[in-house]
Design brief:
By secondary structure, this protein is mostly helical. Helix content is 64%, strand content 2%. It folds into 2 domains: 187 residues, Up-down Bundle (Rhomboid-like fold), CATH 1.20.1540.10; 70 residues, no CATH class. The chain contains 12 helices and 2 strands.
């Protein structure tokens, strides 16, 4: 029988985009440090965006995927691992993907506008990390997290504000390139605006969203009539029908987020996870 993801088996069942971001960032970093015969690494000359290569369009979307600075790379990996798994299921993989795409493109635009005075190519997923943090903080502002350094509890909104301030201060102290700094910090503004206007993230999924809304409305009517799916009903379903239903629910989680499931869909998913 097909195995369905459980909390103990797959921590990224509802966050496939986050999983692939971690894989890509990990592989690209390893490739870069293996090839560091000089100070630029192996991938930076070909995939970073910088003054003089703005016409090479692929660089506008590949620059976040390469980063040979271990500090910013670790920051991005930790952010996606801890907070990406919260943000993606909450808004859906499609919207989460569009948030990352918007952040990437806006960061490239900001950099290109200021690149005439910049000597530093733009690399790293710091802008994407800030976008993920802002999204999570706006959804769960009062959620408390336990920091490692210093070991104190802190609300998510406080943590994000502190991180933004820290990045700004570090950029000033280290006299970082303004174009690079503002390109990364633009992720904060992009995420804030997108989370305030979630419909902006529905690009390319309008038809599917309408169909999902209809299914959700029909399910809500069914629940109100007292005909919601009970555990006994699930047990009486054939194996093939149950698998098809669970597949549909998993697709809905991926597209819309787990928060949009009806009570009967949650019951079905819970049943499948326990028994498979």
């Amino acid at each position: 029988m097909r195995q369905y993801p459980t909390n103990n088996i797959s921590r990224f069942a509802a966050a496939p985009v986050t999983k692939w971001m971690l894989i890509i960032l990990g592989v690209s970093f390893l490739v870069d440090i293996v090839g560091m015969g000089d100070s630029f690494g192996r991938l930076k000359p070909h995939f970073a965006i910088g003054n003089g290569v703005l016409h090479e369009i692929w660089r506008w979307v590949t620059y976040p995927l390469i980063d040979f600075n271990i500090g910013s790379w670790l920051f991005s990996m930790i952010t996606f691992f801890v907070f990406g798994k919260l943000a993606e299921p909450a808004i859906g993989s499609r919207r989460f993907s569009m948030l990352l795409i918007y952040t990437t493109l806006i960061g490239a635009v900001v950099y290109s506008v200021m690149s005439s005075t910049s000597l530093t190519p733009l690399t790293g997923a710091t802008g994407l990390s800030m976008a993920v943090l802002v999204a999570v903080a706006m959804m769960y502002p009062d959620q408390t997290v336990q920091l490692l350094i210093p070991p104190v509890p802190m609300k998510l909104k406080t943590l994000v504000i502190g991180l933004i301030g820290f990045l700004v201060v570090m950029a000033i102290v280290q006299r970082a390139d303004p174009a690079e700094t503002l390109a990364h910090l633009s992720g904060v503004g992009v995420s804030f605006l997108c989370m305030k206007n979630l419909k902006w993230l529905d690009l390319g999924g309008k038809k599917k969203s309408k169909q999902s809304a209809k299914r959700k409305k029909a399910a809500q009517k069914s629940v109100k009539r007292g005909s919601g799916m009970k555990p006994r009903t699930i047990l009486n379903m054939s194996v093939s029908k149950r698998e098809a239903e669970v597949d549909r629910i998993l697709e809905k989680v991926s597209a819309e987020g787990i928060g949009n499931l009806t009570d009967e869909e949650k019951e079905m998913l819970k049943f499948a996870s326990k028994n498979d």
